[in-house]
Amino acid sequence: MNTLSARKPAKLIRQLLAIFVASISAIVANVIFYFILKNLAGVEFIAPSESRSLEVSPLPYTDVIIFSIVFCVGASIVFLITANIARRAASIFVGVSIVVLILSLFMPLKIPTPPIPMATKLSLAAMHIVGAAVIVPLLVVIGLPITSIDPEEI
């Protein structure tokens, strides 16, 4: 077995480990942030009810976990594609992540304001920032070999 074919499984294992560590870290960070906002800052986490738009229901921490998992799956797919295809994987992944983060901030802000307080919407948007601030650097640092990260890219 030559060195090139021996590196491919090691590279994939490193990338999968990065995805696992980054995803768990982002989920834990968002749940902690949720409880800090809810218990210390008094943010009321409510969401529109599925049955009627004017009715609201509490947003439990399990929903934070589910949405964080979806966020992590999306980031992981983009990371795997860029890490295995692009020459400047770190800069491309970070650039795409920033664009997606900016676009994702509009999702909580477009929830109708009368039933949902602005503090809740801003807190949900802040959770997107927390998740990105955890998952993006961890994927780059753990998932990419040091030789592929050019200091001028960062």
Highlighted features:
154 residues; mainly alpha; two-stranded antiparallel ribbon; 5 helices; elongated
Write the layout of secondary structure elements.
Layout: H1 3-40, E1 46-48, E2 56-58, H2 61-85, H3 89-104, H4 106-109, H5 118-143
Antiparallel strand pairs: 1-2
> Roughly what percent helix?
over 70%
Shape: elongated
Number of strands: 2
List the uncertain runs. none
- Largest sheet properties: 2 strands, antiparallel
Number of helices: 5
SS content category: mainly alpha
- C-alpha Rg (nearest Å): 18 Å
Number of domains: 1
Question: How far apart lie the N and C ends?
Answer: 35 Å
Strand content: under 5%
Query: How would you state the average pLDDT, rounded?
Result: 87
Helix and strand run: HEEHHHH
The largest beta-sheet arranges its strands as 1-2
Overview of the molecule:
- This protein is mostly helical.
- Helices cover 71% and strands 4% of the residues.
- It contains five helices and two strands.
- The chain has a two-stranded antiparallel sheet.
Short précis:
This protein is mostly helical. The chain is built from 5 helices and 2 strands. Helix 1 runs antiparallel to helix 2 and helix 3 (89-104) runs antiparallel to helix 5.
